[in-house]
């Protein structure tokens, strides 16, 4: 590209550098420098909400998450609804599942909130296991439940999702809403595309999950949108011992391969 001034063509237009960024032509007329903006405490605070600043926040969340979870023992992530009441049978199931995973030598990781998440954290903690909660900043009030031994709060869903995947040996999905479905299908996609080492995805509660499973089989599989191997990534059960067995066998196979 060339720049013309007073009838003379300049093959090398004037430029201004802003760190690794090069500004040329009319875009180089910036009134302040990075250092000036850093040292000047006056003016609006909008800068803390700009995309470049968010990159640093995102980086910080990854660093904090990796640092906090690096020494967590082999763990299973359990998803489920925050709306499950303590008097609901699914809450009792969550407690029993958390306890069974702890007794099998696994830590549990949940979203750290109330409902099914609290039940799993509680069951694990009461059984002497290691109970982890990865919270998320939401528009409404929802702190970490009191049964979390190690808690990390995140601003960004995608950072939190990375932690769920990276530090888990398996996913178990109790009945849940959009959040549970989001995590379920993200995990299946990552396993299907071999972005992560294969680990089991257990749907716990056939009455709740059977309709979804049947739809995937009758519509998605029959329509040629997934293969038989993809459908086999899902395991439906109502039995806690069966769910733990699937997790243990997959973990042993992974350990033998490494």
Automatic annotation (TrEMBL):
<comment type="similarity">
    <text>Belongs to the LOG family.</text>
</comment>
<dbReference type="GO" id="GO:0009691">
    <property type="term" value="P:cytokinin biosynthetic process"/>
</dbReference>
<dbReference type="GO" id="GO:0102682">
    <property type="term" value="F:cytokinin riboside 5'-monophosphate phosphoribohydrolase activity"/>
</dbReference>
<dbReference type="GO" id="GO:0005829">
    <property type="term" value="C:cytosol"/>
</dbReference>
<keyword id="KW-0203">Cytokinin biosynthesis</keyword>
<keyword id="KW-0378">Hydrolase</keyword>
<dbReference type="InterPro" id="IPR005269">
    <property type="entry name" value="LOG"/>
</dbReference>
<dbReference type="Pfam" id="PF03641">
    <property type="entry name" value="Lysine_decarbox"/>
</dbReference>
<dbReference type="InterPro" id="IPR052341">
    <property type="entry name" value="LOG_family_nucleotidases"/>
</dbReference>
<protein>
    <recommendedName>
        <fullName>Cytokinin riboside 5'-monophosphate phosphoribohydrolase</fullName>
        <ecNumber>3.2.2.n1</ecNumber>
    </recommendedName>
</protein>
<dbReference type="InterPro" id="IPR031100">
    <property type="entry name" value="LOG_fam"/>
</dbReference>
<feature type="region of interest" description="Disordered">
    <location>
        <begin position="1"/>
        <end position="29"/>
    </location>
</feature>
<feature type="compositionally biased region" description="Basic and acidic residues">
    <location>
        <begin position="1"/>
        <end position="18"/>
    </location>
</feature>
């Amino acid at each position: 590209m060339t720049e013309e001034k007073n009838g003379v063509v300049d093959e090398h237009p004037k430029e201004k550098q802003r760190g690794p960024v090069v500004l040329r032509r009319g875009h180089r007329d910036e009134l302040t420098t990075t250092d000036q903006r850093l040292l000047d405490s006056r003016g609006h605070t909008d800068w803390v909400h700009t995309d470049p600043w968010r990159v640093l926040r995102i980086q910080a969340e990854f660093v904090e998450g990796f640092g906090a979870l690096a020494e967590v023992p082999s763990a299973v992530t359990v998803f489920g609804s925050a709306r499950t009441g303590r008097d609901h049978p699914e809450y009792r199931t969550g407690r029993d599942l958390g306890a069974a995973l702890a007794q099998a030598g696994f830590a549990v990781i949940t979203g750290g909130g109330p409902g099914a998440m609290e039940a799993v954290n509680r069951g694990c903690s009461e059984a002497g296991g290691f109970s982890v909660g990865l919270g998320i900043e939401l528009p409404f009030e929802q702190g970490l439940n009191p049964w979390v031994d190690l808690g990390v709060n995140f601003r960004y869903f995608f950072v939190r999702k990375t932690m769920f995947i990276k530090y888990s040996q398996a996913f178990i999905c109790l009945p849940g809403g959009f959040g549970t479905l989001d995590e379920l299908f993200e995990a299946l996609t990552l396993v299907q595309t071999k972005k992560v080492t294969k680990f089991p995805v257990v749907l716990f509660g056939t009455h709740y999950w059977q309709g979804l499973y049947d739809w995937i089989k009758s519509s998605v599989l029959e329509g040629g949108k997934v293969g038989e191997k993809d459908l086999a990534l899902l395991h439906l059960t109502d039995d806690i011992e069966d769910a733990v067995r699937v997790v243990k066998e997959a973990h042993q196979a992974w350990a033998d391969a490494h």
